[in-house]
Design goal:
Helices cover about 45% and strands about 15% of the residues. It has a 7-stranded parallel beta sheet with strand order 3-2-4-1-5-6-7, sandwiched between helices. Strand 6, helix 7 and strand 7 form a beta-alpha-beta unit. Helix 1 crosses helix 9, helix 3 packs parallel to helix 4 and helix 4 runs parallel beside helix 6.
Length: about 210
């Protein structure tokens, strides 16, 4: 089982949105994903509970303690192809455990220096782990960019400091909130642009973990 950790040091940057949409997109491609919800708000669990039909969504397991995460990943490893970990905010010990468990770390960032600066501690933890084990791979995923705009020079300059790849990620679209409230992924909705964004992230994730 490959593990994709999604983490950031603050809330509201789109971690859960990326997590549930990625997991559902993987499932619809024939993979067996599981979501590990480390967010105290339980957003991924609420997402699954809000589904109004009989569609079988990826299983969601809540994990509240960093010390339990590694054991839970091991326990699930024989039953699933990919684990998507939805990391909460302000969880320093949990961040370290997610990084340790992951083959790929996704860091969603809104295109603002004030959202990028708080990732410095996470990037440092990732690079320390890479020095010891060579993993996880790590990338920034731009989140909630205004449609039709490009990253500004200031944001590009801030991101370049970290020497990590940057994926285009998601734009700020109503479809994401609508899908979340219905227990769906945007790949199941009518907004083709949002669906393309998630399919692109999914392609990038699969291409990365296949080479791990």
């Amino acid at each position: 089982m490959k593990v994709v950790g999604i983490l950031h040091g603050k809330g509201g940057v789109g971690k859960s949105t990326v997590a549930v949409n990625l997991a559902r997109a993987l499932q619809l491609r024939g993979y067996e994903p599981v979501i590990i919800d480390c967010d105290a708000q339980g957003t991924a669990q609420s997402w699954k509970a809000s589904r109004g039909d009989e569609a079988e969504l990826p299983p969601v397991f809540g994990v509240g303690k960093a010390s339990a995460l590694e054991a839970d990943v091991r326990r699930l490893s024989d039953s699933f192809d990919v684990a998507v970990i939805d990391g909460g905010a302000h969880l320093d010990k949990m961040h370290a455990s997610i990084i340790k468990a992951s083959d790929l770390a996704l860091i969603p960032v809104q295109p603002s220096p004030t959202d990028i600066w708080p990732t410095e501690q996470i990037v440092e933890l990732i690079k320390r782990r890479q020095e010891v084990t060579g993993s996880p791979s790590a990338v920034f995923v731009i989140s909630r960019r205004k449609a039709g705009t490009k990253l500004g020079d200031t944001v590009q300059n801030v991101l370049s400091r970290f020497d990590l790849p940057v994926w285009e990620g998601t734009c700020d679209r109503v479809a994401y909130a609508e899908a979340m409230g219905k227990g769906r992924s945007v790949v199941e909705m009518s907004d083709s642009k949002a669906a393309e964004e998630i399919q692109s992230i999914t392609d990038n994730v699969l291409n990365t973990i296949r080479h791990e």
